[in-house]
Design brief:
There is one protein chain. The protein is built from 10 helices and 19 strands. The chain is α/β, with parallel strands linked by helices. It folds into 2 domains: 356 residues, Rossmann fold (3-Layer(aba) Sandwich); 67 residues, Alpha-Beta Plaits (2-Layer Sandwich), CATH 3.30.70.80. A 7-stranded parallel β-sheet has the order 10-11-9-13-15-16-17, with helices on both faces. A 4-stranded antiparallel β-sheet has the order 6-7-5-8, covered by helices on one side. Strands 12-1-14 form a 3-stranded antiparallel β-sheet. The chain is elongated and about 85 Å long. The protein binds calcium ion (4 copies). One calcium ion binds next to loops.
């Protein structure tokens, strides 16, 4: 550490292989911060499920059909006479429940027919034949282990634990509202991003800026930034890797942390300024330092005042919230929860914590060179499970990006408020209301996006 520059620590995280080549389940690999652990054997390859693709939004009900139930007092002959009088042609009848399905004459709309039938005192009810759909489920290979997005109580990896069904951020139903806009860019102010990763390359807006090496190629030489970028906005529904929170949003890589996991505050300040002036709507900062600094405060204030939402990690050493997350007025501070909606003890508590998001055993991409350089082999798939508030934060940043896509005019305070007030107070049993552990609670994408979608219409 120099006398003039404050150093920024990359938040310590734990990384283990998600799946790699080979068929033998192996031991977990671990990586604490910049110190990679070694693996003893490859992990299991999982095949892609034959799962439902995503369906486009379409009709709300079957065209030309109504469902009708008549009052039981109406006898069969009267019932047939009545339906004929409306020009209805019987298609089907649900036995026992005595519900009829009719074809509506082409001269009338379904709405008009339903309205007319409801006026008839012999009709108990009449309604369109509504269409139910599965929530948007992406076809990404490892979506099934992404409990953070959709927790069904599934096993999280071949040797993993199982969580609690529903303890997730409600991503699939939120994606029915929006999958994001390509006009919205999330800057990843971190160690860089693997620009050639198969699950990221299509999402990267440009090669970004590298403030560590002073060039225009923010390639990741550490791994951390690639993981964070993928959680926020991996290429989604591409039959590959994982799903990102913000399907259609773009990633802007900004390298401010060196390969060894350290960065100087001046580079971080420069990186935030550059991101704001190069099209970022949201900035993810899964980085933190214990020192308060006016320079850093100025940088996040600059973003905030330009309507750019800054999401930052609370930190992982179980002590006070780190900076910039601790800049309460300008930053959304994100703590971690796990697959049971519980806060891990390492997630830093403090009054500045705004919300929490899943940060334990999070599936994410790692650079294509990563496993070969960290005790694996070049044939290992470039994905890993990782732990940390670094992993929690991009879930919130992805949500912020989806909100900005629906309502670009919202300022940073409004976006942060939407995320705060729609969160689920998952520890209300012991800590009712906002608390230091998880702030307002674990983020809920659907509760955040549905009202925005309605008011944006
Ligand atoms: Ca570079
Ligand atoms: Ca993918
Ligand atoms: Ca705060
Ligand atoms: Ca609470």
């Amino acid at each position: 550490m120099t006398a003039h520059k404050k150093r920024f620590g990359l938040l310590a995280i734990t990384v283990i292989a998600l799946f790699a080549a080979g068929l033998v389940p192996g031991e977990q690999r671990s990586l604490k911060g910049e110190s990679p652990g070694r693996s003893t054997s490859p992990r299991t390859v999982r095949s892609v499920d034959d799962r439902l693709g995503v369906q486009a939004r379409a009709e709300r009900y079957a065209p030309g059909q109504v469902m009708v139930k008549f009052k039981p007092s109406l006898g069969e002959p009267m019932l047939e006479a009545t339906s004929r009088a409306y020009g209805l042609e019987k298609i089907d009848k649900i036995p026992v429940l005595e519900i009829y399905k009719y074809r509506v004459p082409e001269s009338l709309t379904v709405e008009d027919m339903v309205e007319a039938l409801r006026q008839n005192p012999d009709v108990e009810y009449a309604e369109p034949n509504y269409i139910a759909r599965v929530a948007a489920t992406p076809n990404d290979t490892y979506f099934k282990v992404q409990y953070a997005l959709s927790n069904t109580g599934q096993k999280i990896g071949s040797t993993g634990p199982s969580g609690t069904s529903g303890d997730d951020i409600k991503a699939t139903s939120a994606w029915d509202e929006t999958k994001g806009s390509a006009e919205v860019t999330i800057a990843i102010v971190d160690t860089g991003v693997d620009l050639v990763h198969p699950d990221l390359k299509a999402k990267i807006k440009s090669a970004g800026r590298d403030f560590v090496n002073n060039d225009n190629d923010a390639t990741d030489d550490n791994g951390h930034g690639t993981m964070v970028a993928g959680i926020a906005a991996a290429d989604t529904n591409n039959n590959t890797g994982i799903a990102g929170v913000a399907w259609n949003c773009k990633i802007l890589p900004v390298k401010v942390i060196a390969a060894d996991g350290d960065g100087f505050y001046d580079d971080i300040v420069s990186g935030v300024r550059w991101a704001v002036d190069n099209g970022a709507s949201v900035i993810n900062m899964s980085i933190g330092g214990e020192e308060a600094a006016d320079t850093l405060r100025d940088a996040v204030k600059y973003a905030h005042d330009k309507k750019v939402v800054v999401c930052a990690a609370a930190g992982n050493n179980g002590t006070a919230v780190v900076y910039p997350a601790a800049y309460d007025a300008f930053v959304l501070a994100v703590a971690a929860t796990d697959y049971n909606d519980a806060r891990p003890s390492w997630s830093n508590p403090g009054p500045q914590v705004d919300v929490a998001a899943p940060g334990t055993r999070i599936a994410c991409p790692v650079p294509t060179w990563f496993w070969a350089a960290n005790g694996g082999s070049s044939s290992d798939e470039p994905y890993a499970f990782a732990d940390g508030t670094s992993m929690a934060t991009p879930h919130a940043a992805g949500l912020a990006a989806l909100i900005k896509g629906l309502k670009p005019s919202l300022n940073a305070d409004s976006v942060m408020d939407v995320i705060r007030y729609s969160a689920d107070d998952v520890n209300s049993g012991s800590k009712r209301g906002k608390d230091d552990d998880i702030g307002y609670g674990r983020i809920n994408m659907t509760k955040a996006l549905v009202p925005i979608k309605i008011t944006a219409r």
